[in-house]
Amino acid sequence: MIPKFFTSKSCSIATLIVLCVLQMQVMPVYAGIDNNPLKPIDTSSPRATLQGFIEFTNKAYSEGLGFLNTYINSSALYLTAEELAALKEVQHFQKSAERALDLSELPPATVGESSRRLMIQLKEVLDRIDLPPMESIPDAQMMAKSEFKYWVIPNTEIRIQRVEKGVRTGEYLFTSDTVNRLPAFYAKVKNLPYKASASVGWYDFTTYSPTGLALVLNNIVPPRWLLTAPDKQPARAKFLDQPAWRWLGIVIILGTGFIFVRLCFQLSRYWGSRTDSSEQWADLLRPLSLVIVTPIAALIFGEVLRISSGVYVVFTLSFWTLFYLALTWTVWVAGGALATSVITQERLLASSIDSQLIRLVLRLITFIIAIAILVAGADRIGLPAYSVLAGLGVGGLAVALAAQQTIANLIGSLIIMIERPFSVGDSIKLTGTEGVVESVGFRSTRIRTTYNSLVTIPSSQVVNSTVDNMALRDYRQIKVELNLTYNTPIEKIKAFIEGIKHILESHPDTRKDNIQVFFYQFGSHSLDILVDFFIKVPARMDELSERQRIFLDILRLAESIEVEFAFPTQTLHITDLHSLPASVQQTPDIL
Fold first, then answer.
1. Model confidence over 333-350: pLDDT tens digits?
2. pTM to 2 decimal places
3. Among 52, 84, 264, 352, which has the minimal tally of Cβ within 10 Å of its Cβ?
């Protein structure tokens, strides 16, 4: 017999609170069947699964109805803490009934709300069709002897089948195909009359009444005001199977979230413009705003507004997709900001090899974390993780084949950063190139030549070339030949050589064990003196300065001992033509 609350408007009220009981998403302490709060539903056979499902759903419905009767018959406007705790305890029956469904093909992000809705739809279907006697349904012994490990409810396509893989292997559950088709099954039978002991109006009440909103606003708005509102009011009008009041809530939540994200974007630009050092960290506000907003919106849509059907799936999957993309964005930006902070704190040059190495290492770490986040996100929205990993592997292989040279340059840059054959600012010689290293990037090395042009060399080419690092020299060689005139006396040549040796030996930065000053050779126009020595200076400009100082001392020495430097000359000897033989004196006729 249907209780008095389930007539006309009261029917909605009664079913409503029953559903409030069933929709609480907090794990309860259950004092139910056999006084064992941990006892699960028996899924050892088709008979046990079907019988357990019916018993647990009936228990959840009746317990909710009992609570409803107590609340409606009382004069209290608000639910007490004890009543809310009782609602949570009833959820055990709902969760146990949901365990009879094979939900493996549902996206994990939608399981929470979808499992409750599908469980109630299945109960509504079973309450309207004829079921065979329980003793005729196969039990565990009968299924052990049966060739086929499934059972179908007569005259339906509702199948209970043995699970062959996964954590629930060996259990008999309503198949995933049955679960996916439950909305269609319910649509076909919802106008049929209820059978005895049915859960009258359960699905309509949970789907279209503001049960979640009533519980959230319990301390502000009396639940009975929301639950007993007339069914025909404009707020109950439906669009896309959602009542108007729910669409209003959707607009409010989306609008609030958009405003929050917009403010965070503007704050990020303002903070970043205040100082360069905080620009990277300010950029974190943008993805973080989405990371905060999307899961909260998904929670409100599922637990408070109780959005159902395809609208719920679209919104939920969209929110969680955006969440994981924003989380990946956050990790990527955080990696760059952390690298910048470390470089700034250590006072490293932005273009130095140490800075580039820090950036590269943090980029690799953030890349790995980002891939892990994307795989987890894909799994949550229903894309198999192994498919995502396989796709990433195939895509990575394709990219690697198409970008072999780029990868080679990246590896070359990594080798340069680790082995450090040179640093930014070093003067080096490569094959066909000489200059000062200006920067070492992820793909190439830039060298400023002596004539001020900028040469960009792929890092793989640098690694495969012979690098002559002039900056790592302890001493710099200076080698020159001094040309004296042929009429210079021997004694002055000896004095000049000894004077140059004295200048070099007395200089504080020359290498004293390798000074070479000798009469080197007879040149075509001069007597050549070899001057070869090493000087210890830190940079090119210092080398030029000390070189000039030594050469000026040599010029002063030459002036003091009156030694003259030769320059290229040729001697032309002219002979009187009349002194030549007569045959030579005759000149040919010019035609």
1. 888 888 877 777 766 665
2. 0.65
3. 84
